[in-house]
From TrEMBL:
It catalyses: hexadecanoyl-CoA + H2O = hexadecanoate + CoA + H(+); tetradecanoyl-CoA + H2O = tetradecanoate + CoA + H(+); decanoyl-CoA + H2O = decanoate + CoA + H(+); (5Z,8Z,11Z,14Z)-eicosatetraenoyl-CoA + H2O = (5Z,8Z,11Z,14Z)-eicosatetraenoate + CoA + H(+). One of its GO terms (cellular component) is ruffle membrane. The gene is THEM4. Keywords: Apoptosis, Cell membrane, Cell projection, Cytoplasm, Fatty acid metabolism, Hydrolase, Lipid metabolism, Membrane, Mitochondrion, Mitochondrion inner membrane, Transit peptide. It is an enzyme of class 3 (hydrolase). Belongs to the THEM4/THEM5 thioesterase family. Residues 142-213 form the Thioesterase domain. It is a peripheral membrane protein. It comes from the Eukaryota. Its EC number is 3.1.2.2. The lineage of its organism: Eukaryota, Metazoa, Chordata, Craniata, Vertebrata. This is Acyl-coenzyme A thioesterase THEM4. GO terms for molecular function: long-chain fatty acyl-CoA hydrolase activity. Pfam families: 4HBT.
Amino acid sequence: MLRSCAARLRTLGASRGGARGPGAARRSFASEEVVDKDCALPNPSWSKDLRLLFDQFMKKCEEGSWKRLPSYKRSSTQNFKDFRTHYVDPKLLKEEQMSEAQLFTRSFEDGLGFEYVMFCNDAEKRVVCFFQGGPRLQGVPGFTHGGAIASIIDATVGTCAFRAGGVVMTANLNINYKRPIPLCSVVVIDGQLDRVEGRKFFVSCSVRSVSEETLYSEATSLFIALDPNKKLT
Ligand SMILES: CCCCCCCCCCCCCC(=O)SCCNC(=O)CCNC(=O)[C@H](O)C(C)(C)COP(=O)(O)OP(=O)(O)OC[C@H]1O[C@@H](n2cnc3c(N)ncnc32)[C@H](O)[C@@H]1OP(=O)(O)O
């Protein structure tokens, strides 16, 4: 699996006209189309497994019960603009740093970090994420770092809570790591909103292999919908 992952990355580099120096990477990053690119679509680094799952669920979207969630390096939706003005103390915001800010799970070059796509089924209160962790997410040799797994779990269960409760933040995330995830393999994260108590959204998820034979991790979480009358800091 690792060899095919490295091979895919080599072709990716070639398809981009070879290696790029940091300047080139930053130049391409700075251009608007890169920042506004929908990252939740296939790119050359996606494995066959990830493309197959994507195609399967795109068919479900045509049937109407599921919806693919676009994903960007930076979110310019009104929700997040309100978030910043409403909840963040302007003294904490250093504009020059904020101009570089982007979603952590979208801050790696194609294929090196988090390759993923999420689909939601609001009727079932579910969000499913197909995740391929790249070579920059290594923990122990050959396996995905536990913090990277926690990040993609947080994003998946967080999106589940967000769809039900709007602007939420993670208050608690408990993960049981049952089996290590081989680096560059594809896993299925199935998030389910379990219950809502006022501003508290309880979401759980499983992380399984594509064949569903291996249960890698299980998690429970609590997200809190932000109180418009409370500052965060
Ligand atoms: C449109 C664009 C789409 C994009 C989609 C992207 C979606 C991404 C989604 C996001 C993905 C990434 C998300 C991230 O990565 S968010 C980043 C990580 N999280 C944080 O930094 C949050 C830090 N914590 C806080 O800011 C506050 O504690 C919050 C805001 C969470 C609550 O402070 P607030 O002052 O508002 O509320 P409260 O303290 O009155 O508590 C309220 C109730 O909750 C109960 N409680 C609180 N904490 C815990 C706990 N640990 N266990 C059990 N219970 C807890 C508490 O007892 C009370 O219960 P009750 O007395 O009412 O019964």
